[in-house]
Amino acid sequence: MEFGPIWRALMRNKTAYVLIALQIAVTMAIMVNAIAIIQERSRMMARPSGVDEDNIFYLSSTGFTTDYNDRAAIVEDLDAIRSLPGVVDAISSNTVPLRGGGWSSGVATEPGEDADGTGVAVYFVDEHGIDTFGLNLVAGRNFEPTEIEWYSIDSTLWPRAGIISQDAAATLFPDAPHDAVGKTIYISNDEAIQIVGVVERMQAAWKDWEGVERSMLVPAFLEGSSTRYVIRTAPGERDRLMPQIEQMLAESNDGRIVRDLNTMTETRHRSYSEDAAMIKLLVFIVSLLTAITGLGIVGLASFSVARRTRQIGTRRALGASRPAILRYFMLENFMVSSVGIVAGGVLAVALNIWMVQTFELTPMAWYIIPAAMVVLWLVGQAAVYGPARRASLVPPAVATRSV
Amino acid sequence: MIRYYIKLGMLGIRQNPILSALMVAAIAVGIGACMTIINIDYVMSGNPIPQRSEVLYHVQLDSWDPNEPAEEPNEPPNQVTYLDGTALLGAAEGRRQVLSYRSTRVVQPADPDVRPFEVGARSATADFFPMFDVPFLYGRGWDKSADDTLEQVIVLGREINERLFGGEDSVGSTLTMNGEVFRVTGVIDDWTPIPKFYDVTTGPFDEVEEVYFPFSVSIAQEVRGDGNTNCWKPRDDAGWNSFLNSECVWMQFWVELHGADEKRDYMTFLDAYVESQKRLGRFPRPLNNRLNDVMEWMADQEIVADDVQVLLGLAILFLVVCLLNTIGLLLAKIMRRSGDISLRRALGASRSAIFSQYIVEAGVIGLGGGIIGIGLTWLGLKGIEILYGELEFIENLVHMDWVMVLAAIMLAILSALGAALYPTWRACRIHPAAQLKSL
């Protein structure tokens, strides 16, 4: 191959090639890190919440009159909603996964102020909770109707039973995560809660929380003028039932307003909207950048071909074939790209280390670097092909003319 | 002479229209991408109250758990307890102070055909309005005496006044909320501090609240906060009073202090207050109180989203790529015209003349790129607005002011000149005769 002569020719006119190599290096650093972020966000967005997202919606009811009876309203409303055809089940709960607002609390395996706590998201549900959310109970049992209490935001006592997610079990009992049922955990320092069941998965309300997979269901109705009804419908019935139930609740009592009607699908969409937007933005930036770098390569290659027209003619006149000329320019670009790509790999790793430290991102997967290398080599070769082909079409006779 | 260079520059640009267009495009795209993100960062990190930001201080007291800090490494909680907030308010050691919290209320319009609706509300002490320079359309805030006598008065936002009173002067009118009747004392004019500095615990770029209540009235009516309520210590009892006396933090306390002396004195006062509370068995952690002025507090709370900072870094690198591209193209262009340059040098043009000519040409390209770049920035901001459409506050972040327009033009020209420097220097070094030989 002609590596030697090409390299020596490159060295005679370094600047332009150094510029292209630098450009490729920076492009590669951006590309690799953007892909790392895209991957991280996509992974986050792909996590299931554990609930039957397609068929769940929820709405809030807020009583505002001074004589509003919230206990009676919750019981009546749930009876009315559950008896509607198309409704699979319904509960009054404090929140739903991914909603952004909720209740978290520290729980520990030992009582007392000094015990090491683990944060879990708390969901207040009755015995219909598992069915309404569509959770998969993998151990233990559901709550009994007799276990359900009335609980107020001011209460200092906690319900006595709890159902936790597998992830919460694994964090609380790292030695025996499968034997969580029957164990006792402590909340508010020394309030004992017995674990009666474990569900496969139930996410918390906050998607960015490190403990998003740790949840606990407790058997209680949360008292207060404002409550949230979570309703699961038969497949395909959700959109029909939403306005119907909203209207039913609004008309059944003048002393309240019904608001915040949302489906789980919308909630997921909204919860991850910034991540989705970030992904689109990064894809756009990387595509544009690759295009600009490609155009830069085309520009410089055209220039270099134009400048060397006579040399090419001479080489052709001395017997070089067309493919040899084509190969010369393709190889030249390959060598320049390689320098840029190697520098880019170093730059990409440095940028990633900085971003991981500053923004607490997860470090990138190693294979992004070779993948980006291949992409940039291909882009370089594709960009240089046009000018190189034009170079190969230079007739040998050019050598004999004076420019 | 400069007019001649501009003429030559235009001529040069027309000689190589594709190459010139590529250069303008590279600068425009680089400026557009970079300025879009810089603009968002600029708005997000802007000063919401420039005229008073240095005299308003946010107060933090470390009343947290002895076993762990409210936030790593050793940060005090970002709100205060009711006990401490009211104690600091009562002490009145600053020039002015305000204690406030966010809640939700239900408005019951007088017209029975209009359904009741929910509004975001803020319960605050009287100094909220003068301290934060709140502009009034009608009337004014309530008197301090209303705080003491539990007078049922309110201040309305402009929008809700339009909705309920058709935009008329509603001062003196009454309004029923959650079954209680309130009298309007004032209507706020358009007011959008970005970020909403006085309470960043819930969305820092959300709109301000629509209705304002005297703090003491809301406490008496047992109105809960609907922002963040964080507790570390289990409560002794159920009920509202036990909640008020708990170690839960859920309010924001701000104090007005002029100058370093007042700040130091206030810090001394805070430390003395905490010491006195320690004797009562509260504040188990070591002394760790904080006073931050508005901009310090915004920086401490990391108001600018991480995503924006990541994008800013990438956008700057993006501009670097575009500039490398421009340098390459300019070099190509100048080298192509080396014969021309040689000829001019041989005919007596000085190096500085060649330098001026090509720098002017680059400046024209930079200006073109800058102007198109501003257009692209505008497009970019529109794109961001559409892309982040789910965020209600996004429209507040995508405005471009004249500072940013100027910044875009300056950045474009600087970029173009920076990019032109090396190729132009190369042009000056072309020997008068060297290129003529082959002609």
Write the layout of secondary structure elements.
The complex is a heterodimer of chains A (403) and B (439).
Chain A: H1 3-12, H2 14-46, E1 56-63, H3 70-82, E2 87-93, E3 104-108, E4 118-125, H4 129-133, E5 137-140, E6 149-151, E7 161-165, H5 166-172, E8 184-187, E9 191-199, E10 215-222, E11 226-233, H6 238-252, E12 256-263, H7 264-271, H8 273-307, H9 309-317, H10 322-359, H11 368-392
Parallel strand pairs in A: 4-10, 6-10, 7-9
Antiparallel strand pairs in A: 1-11, 1-12, 2-11, 3-4, 3-8, 5-9, 7-10, 8-9
Helix pairs in contact in A: 1-10, 2-8, 2-10, 2-11, 8-11, 10-11
Chain B: H1 2-15, H2 17-44, E1 56-60, E2 80-81, H3 82-91, E3 96-108, E4 117-124, H4 128-131, E5 136-139, H5 144-149, E6 153-156, H6 158-165, E7 174-177, E8 180-188, E9 211-214, H7 215-220, H8 240-244, E10 249-256, H9 259-279, E11 290-293, H10 294-300, H11 306-336, H12 338-346, H13 351-387, H14 394-397, H15 402-428
Parallel strand pairs in B: 4-9, 6-8
Antiparallel strand pairs in B: 1-10, 1-11, 2-10, 3-4, 3-7, 3-10, 5-8, 6-9, 7-8
Number of DSSP-assigned strands of chain B: 11
Mean pLDDT of chain A: 91
Uncertain stretches of chain A: none
By secondary-structure content and strand pairing, the structural class of chain B works out as alpha+beta
For the biggest sheet of chain B, the summary is: 6 strands, mixed, barrel
Biggest interface, which chains? A-B, 57 and 58 residues
Number of helices of chain A: 11
> Order of SSEs of chain B, N→C?
HHEEHEEHEHEHEEEHHEHEHHHHHH
Count of discrete structural domains of chain B:
2
Structure annotation, total helices of chain B: 15
C-alpha geometry of chain A: elongated
Termini gap of chain B: 29 Å
Rg over CA atoms of chain A: 32 Å
Would you kindly provide a written description of the structure presented here, covering whatever features stand out?
The complex is a heterodimer of chains A (403) and B (439). Chain A has helices at 3-12, 14-46, 70-82, 129-133, 166-172, 238-252, 264-271, 273-307, 309-317, 322-359, 368-392, and strands at 56-63, 87-93, 104-108, 118-125, 137-140, 149-151, 161-165, 184-187, 191-199, 215-222, 226-233, 256-263. The mean pLDDT of chain A is 91. In chain A, a hairpin with a 3-residue loop joins strand 8 and strand 9 (191-199). In chain A, strands 3-4-10-7-9-8 form a six-stranded mixed beta barrel. Chain A has a four-stranded antiparallel sheet with strand order 2-11-1-12. Chain A has two domains: 3-46 and 273-400, no CATH class; 65-254, no CATH class. In chain A, helix 2 (14-46) packs across helix 11 (368-392). The two termini of chain A are 29 Å apart. Chain A has 403 residues and is α+β, with helices and mostly antiparallel strands. Chain A has eleven helices and twelve strands. Chain A is elongated. Chain B has 439 residues and is an alpha+beta fold. Chain B folds into two domains: 2-45 and 305-436, no CATH class; 77-279 and 289-300, no CATH class. In chain B, 49% of the residues lie in helices and 15% in strands. Chain B has helices spanning 2-15, 17-44, 82-91, 128-131, 144-149, 158-165, 215-220, 240-244, 259-279, 294-300, 306-336, 338-346, 351-387, 394-397, 402-428; strands at residues 56-60, 80-81, 96-108, 117-124, 136-139, 153-156, 174-177, 180-188, 211-214, 249-256, 290-293. A six-stranded mixed beta barrel of chain B has the order 3-4-9-6-8-7. In chain B, strand 3 (96-108) and strand 4 form a beta hairpin. The longest helix of chain B is centred in the C-terminal third of the chain and has 37 residues, at 351-387. Chain B is elongated and about 100 Å long. Chain B starts with a helix and ends in an 11-residue tail after the last helix. Chains A and B meet through helix 2, helix 8 and helix 10 of A and helix 2, strand 3, helix 8 and helix 11 of B.
